[in-house]
Each structure stands twice: as C-alpha cells, then as structure tokens.
C-alpha cells in the first residue's frame, strides 16, 4: 500500500492529544466511515485488496491499523518504497524497552525485527545486530535459544529470564531476513535468494531504524552473525561501509536524511565465509579435531573423505573465479555431499558432535528447543504482542528459502574477499568457533582467517594461541590469536576457539560467550588474566 504522507500532515496539529484507538473502536463499515469518536482523527482509509486500512497521526507520529493490530508507521525521505511498521512489546524481558515489527519494502517484502535495549546503561551500550543463518533460519533461534534476554522453556509454553543475555552488555536487534524467514513474509511469489540482495534490504532497515531512534545512531554499531551469517555479515558490512563512504562524499543533497552507521566490528560465530578453505578442513576436524567424529584418523571413512578434497577445491576454485551459479551450484552440491555427507551419516548431531541427533525426538534440527520455539512463536498471544499477523505460520528454518539459495550456489561463494577492505578501514573482525561443531568447524575458521590477505596477515601468521581467561571465574574458556592493537586492545583481526561448545556457542557456553562479546565490544584484550593482578597491586586504592 502506498502511503500519502501529504494528506496526513494537516492532521498533525489537530490530533496531538489523541490516544491510539482500541481495536473495537476502529471497526469500519463498508463505506469506511469511522465511529464518530474517531471521525476527525482518521486519516486515510485505503483499500488494500478487500481489507481496509486506517491511518492517523498522533503526537507527530503516524499510526496504522492492520490485521486488528496498531502500528507506528515510520517513513524516510530517502526511501520512497520502505516503511517501518512497529509496536512496543513487553514480553521476554518486560523490564527493558523493546520495539518489534516490520520493515515493509515496496509492498511485497516484509522483514520482521525485535529489538531489546541493554539491561544497563542503554544510552552508552553498543548496538548489535544479530543474525542467524541457514539460509532460511530465524534469528529468534539466537534470541530464544542462545543469547537473548529470555530463553524458551516448558515445551514452548513459556520463556524464562536469561541471566547471561548479551543485552547485559549491548542493545540488540534480532532481524529475520531474507523474506519468508521466521515471521518475515512476502506477498505473492517474491523471494530473495542471494546474499548481496539481502544485504541491501538490511542496510535500508538500519537506516530507517536509526533515523527513528537517533539515540541509537550515536552508539557504536556491530554486526554479529552465526553460521550462514558468515556469508551475510561481510556482505551487509560491505554495503554499510560503502554507503557510509558515499554519504561522506555527497552529503547532504545526495541523500536527504541518511545517517552514517557507526560500524565498528563484524563478529562471526561458527560461520561459513570462505568455503574453499573451510570445506577442505572437514576431514581434519572430523578425524583429528578436538572432538573427532571418527575414532581412527586412518579409518576408511577418513581416508575416503580426504580423497574428495582436491575435487571439492577444484570446483570451489571455479566458483570463486567465475562467481556464477553454473560453477557454484556443482561445487556446493559436491562438497556438501562428499564431505559433510559422511559426517551426517554417523547419526551424530553435526552442530555438536558430542551429542547424537535423534530426529524423531529432537526434530530435523537436532534440538528439541527449536521445536519449542516454533510452538511459542505460533501462539496467538505471542504474535499479537509482537505485531505479527495471526495468519503467519512461523518456522524456525524455512527449507524453501534454503533451497532457493542453494540453487544459486550462494553458499559456495567467496565472502571473505569482502573483508580486507573493511579491516583496513578500521572495522574490527572477530571470528570465533565452538570446537565441537562440525557444520562450520573451528579448524576451517582458523585457517581462512589466517590466510586472509590484509595488512594484518603477516602479524596474524606470527601469533600463537594464547589462553582466553574469563574475568568472572578466571577459567580458560578457549584460545585467542589476535593481530592489531599490540595487545592493548581485543585486536583488529582476532580468532577465538571456544572450548567445549558446538555450533551455537552462547547456548553451550553462556557465561563465557557473554565474557567474550563484552570484552570484544569494549575492545579490551581477551588474553588478560585479571586474577594475575588480584592482591598484587602495590597501591592500596583510594
Ligand atoms: C510464564 O512464566 C512467567 C514467569 O515465570 C509466569 O509469570 C507466567 O505466568 C508464565 N505464563 C504461562 C502462560 O505459564
Ligand atoms: C585497529 O582497530 C582500532 C580500533 O581498535 C582502530 O582505531 C585502528 O585504526 C585499527 N588499525 C588499523 C591499522 O586499521
Ligand atoms: C590466572 O592468574 C591466577 C593468579 O596468578 C593463576 O592462579 C591462574 O592459574 C591464572 N589462570 C590462567 C588460566 O592462567
């Protein structure tokens, strides 16, 4: 639906004290007349198919009523086809300010987001965008299973408070993208099946959100992603960086109202970013890693897998060179079936090979909690509170989206090549990996970051693993290699191996994961052992 802002402007002065109408007050008859109480307030009544949509202005803000839900509508002079349609829920962690709703793009694409303020000092805490992967999986996996302020509980009937939420240290946005993921939807047959297209939409979302909430636009901004998010995050960061550069050159005539996005870092957990390097590491992790899948490195399965590596890499090389679906689809199919296939066939949970995967009990994604999330997200009360059309069916992972990306060979593309420019512009890069994961294993992650051609390459190559000691417990939670900052910062290019964690690090190691991201966001060294200093300060204090 097109919004005619001009028609609404005259209402501004007249309706400054109006409250938001309740749903029964807003019932419209066939002719679209409104109960007298609201007659003077109703702005446009627009036909949207057979539905009627009402808009009004209150306190300088525009509101819209749809599916019996009331939203604030946010537009932006630089985006004629985009709107934010949002509400302020109070579930999950009612003590903090929240915003949820949609980015509507050109009438047919609708991306769902859910934002939580930090639990402490939200005016100063950094802003983090969190993305899960798949492709096709909802970021509410991160929210309700990993790092959000509440976690799924009681078979999906309820959620519980999460003490080690990343909102302890950051304001966090969870975004379901691309369309048809989670609560996000498309009208008609629109679909998004490549990472670069998805990245442009995310940038538009950030612009609208930060323009509506300028106080968050001042904060340092970080993109955090997991798994296939290792493909998304470099692409989004690259789009944001280039838009920032364009903005710096052309302001303000070129792009009225656009804000600079303070992108400080990219954080990728158990990601897939450089498939050429990472696919070849599967036999190493599965046969000789910290948590091997096959007990004997010389077993027939291990030997057979190793013989597949050269062909996989030859195909990946073609994909990197030609960057087309004709070369990337075969690479993806071959490497997945020949290298991931044998791991899957063991019946272990590929996301955490310390566990087995009983699909009849735990579902296709091997964790019963992900089924609970579907239950909770499909409760009418949850949808209503979050501003979601009750007819939307929520799935943790949408396999059609997954297939659509696969048919473009998107998952075989080289996204690491976007990163040198970013790190050389001062945007920091954290790659961390739980070492019990076989889907995007830690060995492959360490290798690609070590090979990344940037001005930090040489320094990184010379680093050795240092223990990462958590501040609270003084325990070794993993190993760190960091280049840049001379040990006074968390590093410009940093790799962390997280001990005893699977694919979803914050699920397996909640305290350590909060320690990691809090120190990363504050840009303080991860290798410092604070207990080293305790009781040894010659100066007694003030
Ligand atoms: C969910 O848990 C909260 C906090 O423990 C409780 O107050 C609430 O009643 C529960 N809701 C349901 C539907 O069980
Ligand atoms: C490394 O990161 C810091 C922020 O910690 C930044 O100020 C600096 O410019 C970066 N170094 C290089 C060489 O880009
Ligand atoms: C941290 O420092 C304390 C005190 O010096 C020491 O006892 C402890 O072993 C150190 N921890 C690690 C992991 O090095």
TrEMBL record:
Q: Which GO terms describe its cellular component?
A: fungal-type vacuole
Keyword Hydrolase among UniProt keywords? yes
Q: Keywords, A to Z?
A: Carboxypeptidase, Glycoprotein, Hydrolase, Protease, Signal
What EC number(s) has UniProt assigned to this enzyme?
Answer: 3.4.16.-
The organism's place on the tree of life at top rank? Eukaryota
User: Would you kindly state one Gene Ontology biological process term found in this protein's UniProt entry?
Assistant: proteolysis
Q: Name one Pfam family in it.
A: Peptidase_S10
Q: Which GO terms describe its molecular function?
A: serine-type carboxypeptidase activity
Q: Which InterPro entries match?
A: AB_hydrolase_fold, Peptidase_S10, Ser_caboxypep_ser_AS
Stored PROSITE patterns: CARBOXYPEPT_SER_SER
The signal peptide stretch is 1-19
Q: Which family does it belong to?
A: Belongs to the peptidase S10 family.
Q: What's the name of the protein?
A: Carboxypeptidase
């Amino acid at each position: 639906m097109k919004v005619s802002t001009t028609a609404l402007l005259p209402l501004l002065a007249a309706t400054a004290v109006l409250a938001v109408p309740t749903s029964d007050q807003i019932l419209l008859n066939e002719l679209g007349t409104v109960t007298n109480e609201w007659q003077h307030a109703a702005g446009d009544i627009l036909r949207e198919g057979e539905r009627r949509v009402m808009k009004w202005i209150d306190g300088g803000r525009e509101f819209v009523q749809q599916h019996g839900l009331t939203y604030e509508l946010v537009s932006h002079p630089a985006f004629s086809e985009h709107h934010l349609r949002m509400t302020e829920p109070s579930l999950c962690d009612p003590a903090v300010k929240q915003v949820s709703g949609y980015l509507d793009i050109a009438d047919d694409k609708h991306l769902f987001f859910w934002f939580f303020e930090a639990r402490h000092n939200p005016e100063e805490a950094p802003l983090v965008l969190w993305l899960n992967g798949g492709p096709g999986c909802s970021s509410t996996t991160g929210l309700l299973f990993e790092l959000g302020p509440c976690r799924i509980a009681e078979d999906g009937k309820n959620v519980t408070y999460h003490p080690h939420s990343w909102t302890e240290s950051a304001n966090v946005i969870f975004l379901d993208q691309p369309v048809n993921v989670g609560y996000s939807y498309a009208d008609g047959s629109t679909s998004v099946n490549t990472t670069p297209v998805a990245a442009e939409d995310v940038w538009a979302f950030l612009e609208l959100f930060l323009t509506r909430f300028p106080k968050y636009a001042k904060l340092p901004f970080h993109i955090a992603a997991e798994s296939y998010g290792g493909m998304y995050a470099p692409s989004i960061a690259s789009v944001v960086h280039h838009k920032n550069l364009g903005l710096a050159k052309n302001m303000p005539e070129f792009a009225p109202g656009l804000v600079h996005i303070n992108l400080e870092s990219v954080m990728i957990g158990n990601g897939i970013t450089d498939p050429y390097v990472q696919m070849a590491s599967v036999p190493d992790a599965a046969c000789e890693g910290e948590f091997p899948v096959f007990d004997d490195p010389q077993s027939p399965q291990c030997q057979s897998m190793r013989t597949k590596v050269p062909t996989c890499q030859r195909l990946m090389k073609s994909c990197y060179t030609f960057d087309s679906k004709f070369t990337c689809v075969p690479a993806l199919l071959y490497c997945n079936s020949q290298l991931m296939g044998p791991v899957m066939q063991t019946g272990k949970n590929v996301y955490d090979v310390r566990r087995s995967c009983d699909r009849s009990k735990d579902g296709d994604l091997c964790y019963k909690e992900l089924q609970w999330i579907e239950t909770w997200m499909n409760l009418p009360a949850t949808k209503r509170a979050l501003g979601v059309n009750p007819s939307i069916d929520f799935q943790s992972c949408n396999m059609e989206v997954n297939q659509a990306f696969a048919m473009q060979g998107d998952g075989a593309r080289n996204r690491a090549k976007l990163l040198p420019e970013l790190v050389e512009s001062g945007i920091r890069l954290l790659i961390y990996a739980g070492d019990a994961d076989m889907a995007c294993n830690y060995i492959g992650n360490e290798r690609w970051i070590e090979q990344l051609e940037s001005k930090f390459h040489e320094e990184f190559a010379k680093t050795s693993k240092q223990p990462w000691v958590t501040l609270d417990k003084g325990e070794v939670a993993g190993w760190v290699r960091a280049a840049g900052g001379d040990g006074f910062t968390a590093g410009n290019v940093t790799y962390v191996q997280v001990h005893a964690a699977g694919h979803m690090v914050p699920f397996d190691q909640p305290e350590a994961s909060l320690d990691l991201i809090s120190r990363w966001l504050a840009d303080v060294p991860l290798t410092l052992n604070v207990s080293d200093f305790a009781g040894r300060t010659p100066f007694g204090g003030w």
